[in-house]
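Morning F.,

Quick status update on the modeling queue. The single chain you submitted on Monday has been processed. Sequence for confirmation:
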Amino acid sequence: MNLAAEAAWPRDRLDADYTARLTCSEADFHRIVGDYARLSAAALALPGARSGLVYDPVSGEALDLFGTVPGEARPCFVFIHGGYWRALSRGASAFMAPMLAARGIACAVPDYTLAPAVSLTEITRQCRAALAWLWQNADSLGIDRGRIVVGGSSAGGHLAAAVAAGGWQAAAGLPPQPLHGLMPVSGLFELAPLASSHVQDWMRLTPAEVAGLSPLRHLPAAPLPAVVALAEAETPGFHRQSAAYAAAIGAPVLEVPGRNHFDVILDWTDPDSAMSRRLLALLQASVA
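Structure tokens below.
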């Protein structure tokens, strides 16, 4: 499957294939995003929740951390929010933290500067900096640096895969594979089609960014347990992207029936959902 070749397709087809809002009604979209915020606000009431921890002095960007306990080193799920790199925030992205905390798992939710204020190069740098900060400060934060799993939704799925990509870790003082697992949801792994679609109107992707920041062209440097998830109702472009990336990294695809692009990640609030079972299995798996 050559996703880069899609860049030559007609603009109207690419726009339809990569418009996530087509997967639900306007009313459902606003209700779901409201649920993000409502459930994330509740997470801030968790014992020991810490908000606004600056992970990157250059940008001043911060993250929220949930579910840690003094004297323990807990597995940690790092969730990177979506919003096509230009919307949402950590304040509406911690809805899975209570489910994880109840099972002895920490959750870190970083912000990143939104486009078009900064480039995708800078957004990616910030997300990698968040992972490096968590890994390097794991002892004082109450995190087991050997059990960090990164995930994200939509654009956040791209950023999670960019964090898992090889080639940047040594410069950040990390081992070649600092992660324990990866779970992108409805992600974007080849940027060439996006650079020929409506997304380019606000992302202004350069040829160098398409080449350098497409996770399909920069796979993890070492084997990494992973699950590639997406909603059944995704538009065709998201289905092609997930299938191609899963095949490239040798990961299973979890297609969640009855869910759309936006509500699929709310399944992480239910410990018995397929989404939660797969995530918990990654977090709790034995370290190789």
